[in-house]
Amino acid sequence: MVVSGELGTVPYTLVEGADGADEPEEPTQVGGHRIVERIGTGGAAAVYAALDPAGRWTAVKVLHPAVAADAACRKRFAREVALLGTVAGEYTAPLLDADVGAARPWLAMHYIAGPTVGGHVDAEGPLAGVALLEFAAGLAEAIAAVHRGGIVHRDLKPGNVLLAGDGPRIIDFGIARRCDEDLDAGSGEILGSPGWISPEQFHDRVPGPAADVFAWGGLVAYAATGRRPFGAGTLRQTAARVLNGEADLHGTPGLLRPWVEAALHTDPDRRPASAELAEAIGGLAGPRRRPPQASSSWAWISSR
């Protein structure tokens, strides 16, 4: 069994030089987007804040040269772009433009102002009260929307959910897949981030929508308490807690806890469906209406 990413997700084939060390001089323009500054970098790509030809802010993700030279990595990036084009824009950072055939494939998205859940907890502490309920409801609604589009995200974690002004936004579809995609179980590889990977994946089962519901439970507990529900430690220790259902939910509000516990069930068939979850938690939070999309560009995209 191989887990891709001890400290984070590694959605692309690991290739020598793919840590950004071989990064050439910073680009000044990608497509029609004028680069302003680098805002992130990871094993697969660099992310830049940029301005489009109309002067609107965008976030541009560009593969590192060594990654771009790998055919499997290019194919995965092209799939990410294709999936992003089908996701409801009000629940993610909308795709604006892309070129998967470029020497260094890239994509551009709206630049959304707002911290990640992890960034907020680190800086401000856990969410509470109405803010927590609205986060739980908004994230459930966003996950249900992704599933209605026929997509499983597979990598929901604190760094991949933004707290935007109009509700949570799901970002980084680097290891997402279509629900109807024909994948073989038993490959021995697990893609995801330790502590957020659903238990069925450790049994060599292809993760379906229930894996995202499991992540919802973990994220709500994390947002409420500031603690990773399955703790820290080695990958083996974390996996054992996940497999045994040993989530630390102390401090999770009683109103949400039954749904969090249901979402974290070790049997995916016994978790609520995302649509059921969105309806139930939305009822707890009361009427929620997303404001109209702002005319200015917003957003963030993970660099991996």
Automatic annotation (TrEMBL):
Region (Disordered): 281-304
One Pfam match: Pkinase
PROSITE patterns the UniProt entry points to: PROTEIN_KINASE_DOM, PROTEIN_KINASE_ST
Positions with biased composition (Polar residues): 293-304
One GO molecular-function entry: protein serine/threonine kinase activity
Transmembrane segments: none
Keywords: ATP-binding, Kinase, Nucleotide-binding, Serine/threonine-protein kinase, Transferase
Alphabetical list of InterPro entries matching this protein: Kinase-like_dom_sf, Prot_kinase_dom, Ser/Thr_kinase_AS
Domain Protein kinase: 33-284
Name listed for the protein in its UniProt record: Serine/threonine protein kinase
Organism in which the protein naturally occurs: Thermobifida alba (Thermomonospora alba)
